[in-house]
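On clarity, I found the account of how folds are encoded harder to follow than it need be. What matters is that the chain and its backbone geometry are given together, residue for residue. For the editor and my fellow referees, an illustration may be useful. For illustration, here is how one protein appears when written out as sequence plus structure tokens:

___
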Amino acid sequence: MRLRALHLENVRRFAGQRLSVTGIGDGITVIAEPNEFGKSTLFDALHALMFAKYSGRPEPVRALQPYAGGAVTVRAEVETDAGRFSIEKRFLSRAMARVTRLPDDAVQAQEDAAETWITQALGGQGKGPAGMLWVRQGQLGLEPEKPAERTELTETRRDLLSSVAGEIDAMTGGRRMDRVRRQVGAALADLTTATGRPTAAWKEARERVTALEGDLTEAEARVADLAGKLAERASVEARARRMDDPAADTRRRAARSEARAALEAAQAHAGKLRAAELARDLARQRAKAAQEDLDRFLAALNALESARKAAADSATAAQTAAGAVATARTTRDSAQAESDAAEAALQAAQRALAAARTQVEARKARARAAELSKRLEQVEAAQQAQDAAAAQVQRLQATPDRLARIEALEADLAAAEAAARAQTATLRLEYAEGARPVLRDGAPLPGGADLPVDGALSLTLPGIGTLHLTAPAPGAEAAATQRAARTARDAA
């Protein structure tokens, strides 16, 4: 595997920035910059890319994160016998690992499969033929952490170190070294006296170093502050790019159109459902009234049947009485000869019986007529109540169309209120246990509730000071839209 380019994003001092080293060819590539420029950061990031698992959080990986926080991204372009590839890992936040083929960016492996690909590309053990040779901050990091691996690769690494030592010997021997020593001696003579004491130039340099160290401390503080601001700016710019992306805008418009169509379909379905519910309720009322009418009609039928039965009983009694009369007549005929007086008495009894029957039937007929008349009045009253209820339903103004209109105006009002809220900032306080409450106009603010920031807001932080917040109030157009929507809703 041959390294061709290295890209870092949001790593240590490069918070919110992107650092790239490209154009790395065969042979030795030298990166020469002043101290604290970021050379060690490049090596540490490359080591994490090759040997640290993307989903882990070991100390060397966490040390790559800047003060401002955020995800750490490292990508390297490498060349193998199979071609040129891009190896990329994102650590700590939204962790990922991916290997793609260049230049078409075809994905070769992702996540754990990408880790396996890197291990195989490094030589099967994740360390290459002799592991990575690190020379950083005066330390030669040749040995692996595990003793077994250290024994396994000792000979190979020793040969590699010997070749490096040969390069060092070529520099430190012969005339080249003599020239270096003379130049160092001449430079030292300008800074020291014959007795080895520092000259004024040296003292001035020391004072300048002290002053510069103070400036460095101040600059580092400013860098940390600017790093946080740059990270925030990068986040805002990324969000702005996403908002300005025509394709994303097209997708959002399409999504809004689909949502609007779905909403309209849902509202139409809701209107149909409400109409069906109204029709169902009306049918239930009609069915209930019809059942009550049916119950009354059945009761009238039962009464009629009872009257018919009573009439049948009366007819039976009449037939029985007629039989008795026939018997009496037979007895009379047989006793006619015995007593004319008995005949006269019998005729008088027959006339009295006929008169009694007539009176009984008349009383029964009058009672039945009165009962049927009362039931008829009840049926007519129920019919009038049903007609009045039907007329009231006809006069009802809460039609499905009007209800659908009211619901549409409710939705417009909710949208206007949401638009107004979107233009208003809110502040939420979450207190730690035992924390002193924040004060507003001398009164403590409760935790966990959203506090709208409309215009200027001043909060007292006990033991710290006063926090002044300023946020724009909702625009006049949004307020006017909200008022118009509420007025239309209330009128409906």
